[in-house]
Amino acid sequence: MISSGLKPAPFQGSGEFTFSELESYVREIAYKSYRGIETVQVPRNLTQLMELVGCLYADGCITEDKRGGGRGLCVRFTSGDYAECERYCGLLRSLFGLTPTIKKEKDEHCYDVRFTNKIVGRLLRSLGLPVGLKTDSMQMDPAISSAPNDLLAAFLRGLISHDGWVSNRKNIGFSTSSKRLAIQVDLCLQRFGIVTALRKRRPKVTAIQGKLVRSKGNYELSIYDGESLKTFQEQIGFPQSTKSQKLVALIALKKFNHSNFIRIGHDMISVRVKRISREAANAEVYDLTVEGSHSFLANGFIVHNTAAVLREKTGGMVLEAGALVLADKGTACIDELDKMRPDDRVAIHEALEQQTVSVAKGGIVATLNARASVLAAANPALGRYEPHRNINENINLPVTILSRFDLIFLVKDLPEPENDTRMSEHILSLHKTSHTPEEAPFPPDFLRKYISYAKRIVPVLTPGAVKELQDFYLKMRNTTGKEAAVAITPRQLEGLVRISEARARAFLRDEVTVEDAKSAVKIMSYALYDVGVDVKTGKIDIDTIMTGKPATVRDSLGRVMAIVAELERETGTVDEKILLAALVEREKVTDGEARRFVGQLIKEGMLYSPKEGKLKRTSG
After folding, report:
1. What percent of the chain has pLDDT over 90?
2. Do 251 and 229 contact (CB within 8 A), yes or no?
């Protein structure tokens, strides 16, 4: 290194450093080549450097210099315009202090600028220029795409000025054989609010010097609308005066409106959808979620989220609409609720409790609104409802979900001659004629408008309604003692309020009246006496629904644990057969009930089996 002499150079050995650190201490870098010691100036103008890189992305390449052991790097630039070569040489001179010459071979139709410099070659290679011929897989280096707007604009200026054109009456265009580079340039232009059209050109055959040459299929970006053309002129522009003049003339011809999209501010555009089609894909798709907006970015466009993330056959991750999310501010009807998968149970539990559905999969993280009323149906676990069992034993649903429903009703198929006669007559009458024998009481359009209007009403409780609900709540609470079964909890009180408000809304009233409260109390009482009763005592015990353990079961489990503790003090571990015999003798229960109590305690982790046939408490 040759120090500037202003400060002592801090770099010793082969330590790494940045250009910002280098700039304060070093004016030039010296290196040894096959020609001897050569120097190169440290570039200080990053805008010029990015424009130079853009020029080389378009019309340049890096090759290995075979001379001197093949360790040198040759940087080459070709163009059919002598003025462009002069500007390129000016950038090299200003940035690196290099003065290459412009040459033109006798049989060639373009000008050529080349020089060998290992330091400059390595710098350009670190910015994405490959060593060797450029291929269809050419892509922009992340350091460029993530650069500030002024540096990115300089890169695009150099790239598009050499691989682009300005049509007299149509557009600005850019062409490349690399699909990935075309997409990256498209996304970079969108950072400036420039709308482009991307399409693929088919290969074509042209005659060059009497020979037929087949070109590769290229990808073209086109800028058509006046707003985008003007933004390109102001933010990026062309260094060549000829293209700049054409751009000014093109903007003057354009009308500053476009039928395909609407600008929303200076940095957002709403695009009209022309058609929807399915394209074959052969790679995974990664999307960027916009936190807090329930949207994500797909291919540079903002897309609204719906529900779950699924993997397609092609391997890509996509969002699929879910019933609870689509039913937001409406009603979701779910059949076979007891047949849910475990992951679905987690989702519906959140929806019933928090009114949201969370998605975190495939790189997509979102919380979606699911403010819906849920009407669900489930079947008994054993095919028929067993009246001598509590509801949690009859339905294959966890109490965490069962307890979230305000109302639960049992629909029992009991043989009753009168009801069976009416049911059979109704079913058979439906098949007697080709049309429905009865008409709907209300036309569907009227019913739809009625429901839509009723949803807008937000009724408030009147003092009379408040007293009615409070009296019922306190009455139910006072029927139980401190240690006895609890008949009702605040969750049921909230359910009473919701039912009362729903009835007032159905009557299109702004206030919840006493009649609404009485009706809610009647419905809640019927549901509690239907499913909230402990089958052993015949009394209402809300823990039958809320926890799956009514007071009688809690007491029985407590006595089982007491017997286990007593036997542990005698033998250390408890023989399962001895425990079952003790339960049958002391608690006067059947062998099946005793086994069910022990199995429940093992399932809940209060008992464990250190070895087969032996039991022990998890905490002494």
Report:
1. 17
2. yes
Q: Check if the beta carbon of residue 620 is closer than 8 Å to that of residue 573.
A: no
Assigned domain for 324 exists: yes
Q: How many domains does the chain have?
A: 5
pLDDT in tens, 473-495: 888 887 655 555 666 788 889 99
Examine the domain organization and report whether 206 and 149 are in the same domain: yes
pLDDT at 90: 92
Q: What is the CATH number of the domain that holds 579?
A: 1.10.10.10
* Same domain flag for 46 and 150: no
Judge if 303 and 323 occupy the same domain: yes
Residue 410 lies in a domain: no
Contact 261, 271 (CB under 8 A): yes
For the stretch 444-473, pLDDT in tens is: 889 889 988 998 899 999 999 999 999 988
- 264 assigned to some structural domain: yes
Compute the distance between CA of residue 62 and CA of residue 72 in angstroms, rounded to an integer.
10
Q: Which backbone phi and psi does 276 adopt, to 5 degrees?
A: -120, 125
Distance CA 496, CA 494 (A): 5
Quick count: other Cβ atoms within 10 Å of Cβ 290?
15
My answer on whether 54 and 101 are in the same domain is yes
DSSP summary character for residue 49? H
* 308 within 8 A of 343, measured Cβ to Cβ: no
Spell out a b/e string for 587-613, using b for 16 or more CB atoms within 10 Å of the CB, else e.
eebeeeebeebbebbeeeeebeeeeee
Please give the angle made by the CA atoms of 337, 343 and 348, to the nearest 5 degrees: 50
Q: Which domain holds residue 596?
A: 551-617
For 386, other C-beta atoms within 10 Å of its C-beta total 13
